[in-house]
Amino acid sequence: MVLRFAWEELEMAATPDTTTDLAALAARPKRADARRNYDKLVAAAREAFAEEGSDATLEEIAKRAGVGIGTLYRHFPRREDLLEATYLGGVEGICAAAAKYEDLPPWEALTGWLGEFVAFAATKRALAEELFSRLDRDSPVFKGCAGAIYGAGEPLLQRAQAAGEVRGDVDISDVTKMISGIAGLRRTEPEQIERLVGIALDGLRPA
């Protein structure tokens, strides 16, 4: 229950600004070798937080990434810096994924992207509790993330609505919150999550 409330707080802390440049917020290093280490650390953190939640240690993350703890601290002086980068990386990924579905039929495009959103939301559930406890609500990272997700998914939803495939009384905020709520269910098998998402998507169809 705490994790669900934490996720909702993260969404409320964000400002729907679809012009946000997420890449600019990430402040990744420009040197190729430093960039590789940065990306390896973020990938390792995503895995560790997904598996162990807030119990994941920085030492373990550095080991997973194959770098020393000093390298981790050079890129992420504070634990919250790594948390923000991991969260932002996931947001960038789900936003970029929308482009893969633009040429599909409207309903397939929307549900294909939402299928990826389920995995994104489930992974972020593992970060939610610690992010909430450490969150700076004025951080531009968190202010822009929800808006960026809405900006990626809204065209897919509107195209499906224009085609008569989706009821007209919902917006992208409704849809992503619905999917996030299902993906965030604890002690629920992936197969049941998939079935519940399917039921929810059926509810988007026009009467």
Descriptive account of the structure:
This protein is an all-alpha fold and 207 residues long. It has one domain: Tetracycline Repressor, domain 2, CATH 1.10.357. The protein is built from ten helices and no strands. Helix 7 packs antiparallel against helix 8. The protein is elongated and about 60 Å long. The relative contact order is 0.16. The N terminus is likely disordered.
- The fraction of residues assigned to DSSP E strands is under 5%
Give the fraction of residues assigned to helices.
Answer: over 70%
Query: How many helices in DSSP terms?
Result: 10
CATH fold title: Tetracycline Repressor, domain 2
Q: What is the tally of beta strands? A: 0
Largest sheet: none
CATH superfamily: Tetracycline Repressor, domain 2
Query: What average pLDDT do the residues reach?
Result: 83
Which residues form runs of ≥5 with pLDDT under 50? 1-7, 12-19
Helix and strand composition category: mainly alpha
Order of helices and strands: HHHHHHHHHH
Radius of gyration: 18 Å
CATH architecture: Orthogonal Bundle
- Would you state the CATH class? Mainly Alpha
In whole angstroms, the N-to-C terminal distance is: 33 Å
Kindly give the count of domains.
Answer: 1
